[in-house]
Design goal:
The structure is a single chain. By secondary structure, the protein is α/β, with parallel strands linked by helices. Strands 1, 2, 3, 4, 5, 6, 7, 8, 9 and 12 form a ten-stranded parallel sheet that branches. A two-stranded antiparallel ribbon has the order 10-11. It has two domains: 305 residues, Alpha-Beta Barrel (TIM Barrel), CATH 3.20.20.70; 44 residues. It has 13 helices and twelve strands. The C terminus is likely disordered. 45% of the residues lie in helices and 14% in strands. The structure holds iron/sulfur cluster. The site of iron/sulfur cluster has 9 residues, from loops. Iron/sulfur cluster binds next to loops.
Length: 371
C-alpha cells in the first residue's frame, strides 16, 4: 500500500504532474492497483432535486439565476419522485445517489426537513447517499448525519488564487469551512473541481495541493471537464483535451491514493478509448445517467457497454465504510440492548461481568504500583 501523505508541497505535486506522460500513467496505475481493485468502478447517480434560481455567481454554472440559460428550473422534488429515481438508478447499477440542490446554503426550513427525509429514504434502500446543497453549518451537518448521509459533496472548483476569477459571492474559506463541518461529523467528503475554465497548470496543481492536505483526504475526488454552457460567462471556453484530463486524474490518484477519483462532467466529449485511459490512470468512479444536474452525460446503457468491453464491474455500496445508522436506528439498537440486559438471566451475567472487571482493575493497579 502506498504511503498516505498529508504534507504534499506544490513543488512535489507539480513534479508529478509534469512527468513524461507514459511514466505518469504507469506510476498512477501502480498506485491504483496497490489501493483498489482496478477492475471495479463505482457508479454514482446524480439527481437534481432542486434546479436553477441559485443566488451564487459561479461562472461555469447554468443554474445561477443571474445568467440567461435555457435550463428547466424546478422547485424541490417530492420524496416519492426522488425514491423512484433512486430505485431506477439502483436497477441501473448505481451504488451511490447524490442529491443536488441549487442553493447557496442550507436553510433550516421545511425544504431541508424534506431533504432529510430523502436521505433517510435512500439510505434505507442500502445505497450510499451523498448530498450537494451548498454551504452547511455544523448543526446542519449533524442533522444530515443523523438522517443517514454517507458523503457530502462540496467542490473546491480550482486553486485558491484562480477561484476568485470564477466566483465572487463566497470565498475559498467558506468552502473549506463546510468541508470541515462535514468531516467533524464523520461524514465522508467528496471534493474536487473543474478543469478547462481558463486556469493554468499551476492552478490545477494548487487545487490538488489543498485537497491533498486535508486530513483525512476526501474519500471522493471528482475531476470535471468544463462543459461550456451558452449564457454563462465561460460559454466560449474550449473543452479540455483527453491528455489534460488523464494527467489531472493520474496526479490526483498518486497524491490521494485511497480516494475514489471520479471521472465526472465532460465525458460526452470523450471516446471509449479516452475513458479507458482515464480508468488506467486511476479513475475509479463515474457519474451515470443521461444528465449531470443540467449538462449532458452518457446514457446508462453506453456506460454498461463500456464496462462489458473492459470487463469492469460496478463497485458495491459500503465497501469503503459502514452504512450510516439513522438516529432512529441508533435508538432501536439502544432499546433492544436495554431490553436484553434487563432480562433476569442477563442481569446475573452483567453482575458477574462487573465483578470480573473490578478484579482486573485491582490486578492492574497492583502491577502498576510494583513498577
Ligand atoms: S455551482 Fe452551485 S452554488 Fe454555484 S451557481 Fe451553480 S448551483 Fe449555485
Amino acid at each position: 500500500m502506498s504511503e498516505i501523505k498529508y504534507d504534499w508541497t506544490k513543488e512535489e505535486i507539480k513534479a508529478i504532474y509534469d512527468k513524461p506522460f507514459m511514466e505518469l500513467i504507469y506510476e498512477a496505475a501502480t498506485v491504483h492497483r496497490e489501493n483498489h481493485n482496478p477492475n471495479e468502478v463505482q457508479v454514482s447517480s446524480l439527481i437534481s432535486i432542486k434546479t436553477g434560481g441559485c443566488s451564487e455567481d459561479c461562472g461555469y454554472c447554468p443554474q445561477a439565476a443571474r445568467y440567461h440559460t435555457d435550463i428547466d428550473k424546478n422547485d424541490l422534488m417530492s420524496l416519492e419522485e426522488v425514491t423512484q429515481m433512486a430505485e431506477n438508478a439502483k436497477a441501473g447499477g448505481a451504488s451511490r445517489v447524490c442529491l443536488g440542490a441549487a442553493w447557496r446554503n442550507v436553510k433550516n426550513d421545511t425544504d431541508f426537513d424534506n431533504v432529510l427525509e430523502m436521505v433517510k429514504g435512500v439510505n434505507s434502500m442500502n445505497m450510499e447517499v451523498c448530498c450537494t446543497l451548498g454551504m452547511l453549518s455544523q448543526d446542519q451537518a449533524r442533522r444530515l448525519k443523523e438522517a443517514g448521509i454517507y458523503a457530502y459533496n462540496h467542490n473546491l472548483d480550482s486553486s485558491e488564487e484562480f477561484y476568485k476569477e470564477i466566483i465572487s459571492t463566497r470565498g475559498y474559506d467558506d468552502r473549506l469551512r463546510t468541508i470541515e463541518h462535514a468531516q467533524n461529523e464523520g461524514i465522508h467528503v467528496c471534493s474536487g473541481g473543474i478543469i478547462g475554465m481558463g486556469e493554468s497548470d499551476d492552478d490545477r496543481v494548487g487545487m490538488l495541493y489543498t485537497l491533498s492536505r486535508l486530513n483525512p483526504h476526501p474519500s471522493s475526488v471528482p475531476i470535471n471537464g468544463l462543459v461550456p454552457v451558452p449564457g454563462t460567462p465561460l460559454e466560449e471556453q474550449k473543452p479540455v483535451s483527453i491528455w489534460e484530463m488523464v494527467r489531472m486524474i493520474a496526479t490526483a490518484r498518486i497524491v490521494m491514493p485511497r480516494a475514489q477519483v471520479r471521472l465526472s462532467a465532460g465525458r460526452t466529449y470523450m471516446t471509449q478509448e479516452g475513458q479507458a485511459m482515464c480508468f488506467m490512470a486511476g479513475a475509479n468512479s463515474i457519474f451515470a445517467g443521461d444528465k449531470l444536474l443540467t449538462t449532458p452525460n452518457p446514457e446508462y446503457n453506453e456506460d454498461m457497454e463500456l464496462f462489458d468491453l473492459l470487463n469492469i464491474t460496478p463497485k458495491k455500496a459500503y465497501v469503503d465504510g459502514a452504512q450510516p445508522q439513522t438516529k432512529e436506528s441508533y435508538k432501536e439498537v439502544r432499546e433492544t440492548e436495554q431490553a436484553k440486559w434487563s432480562r433476569p438471566e442477563h442481569k446475573i451475567e452483567a453482575n458477574e461481568l462487573k465483578k470480573a472487571e473490578a478484579k482486573e482493575v485491582r490486578k492492574v493497579t497492583r502491577v502498576d504500583s510494583l513498577n
